[in-house]
């Protein structure tokens, strides 16, 4: 026996509303909702002398009720990929926005506002899912920041 289509949509809507309460540690995209919302596409310029990118237009990333503001002038290397792995994982790609947000959270403790390292890394993972980074690349990059990000996080606390 098949459930009426209206009932299925109602169940999906209820699950979407309850999802953050049912599993607060893992939030999924329900009913077409984004995991991370970005207020605009990044506008960047390359600073050759510093070998970094500069954010030219500010934007905000919103995740699980947290708003992380990326100011104009913020300098970033985008994804901090070791030279050895750059042939496998590109430094520039769909993951630009999540990488910029991750960078500011790691480098500037005052932007964290109660966000732990695990949460910053999860926001990076969810952000990559939002901008449709492929599953394998998304999880490889997430695994890398979980495994090696502790040193950068601790350095940012000083």
Write structural notes for this entry.
The structure is a single chain. The chain has 158 residues and is α+β, with helices and mostly antiparallel strands. The protein folds into two domains: 1-33, no CATH class; 35-157, no CATH class. It has helices at residues 5-22, 96-107, 117-130, 135-148, 150-157; strands at residues 37-38, 44-47, 52-55, 59-63, 66-70, 75-76. The strands form two sheets. The chain has a three-stranded antiparallel beta sheet with strand order 1-4-5, covered by helices on one side. A three-stranded antiparallel beta sheet has the order 2-3-6. α2 packs antiparallel against α3 and α3 runs antiparallel to α4. The N and C termini lie far apart (62 Å). Mean pLDDT is 79; it is low at 13-32.
Rounded to the nearest angstrom, the radius of gyration is: 17 Å
Q: How many helical elements?
A: 5
Structural class: alpha+beta
Strand order of the largest sheet: 1-4-5
**Mean pLDDT over the full residue set:** 79
How many beta strands in the DSSP annotation?
6
Shape: globular
| Terminus-to-terminus distance | 62 Å
Give, in order, the helices and strands.
HEEEEEEHHHH
Task: Please identify the oligomeric state.
Answer: single chain
Largest sheet: 3 strands, antiparallel
- Helix content estimate: 40-55%
Low-confidence stretches: 13-32
Proportion of β residues? 5-15%
Number of domains as seen in the coordinates? 2
Organism: marine sediment metagenome
Protein name: DUF1353 domain-containing protein
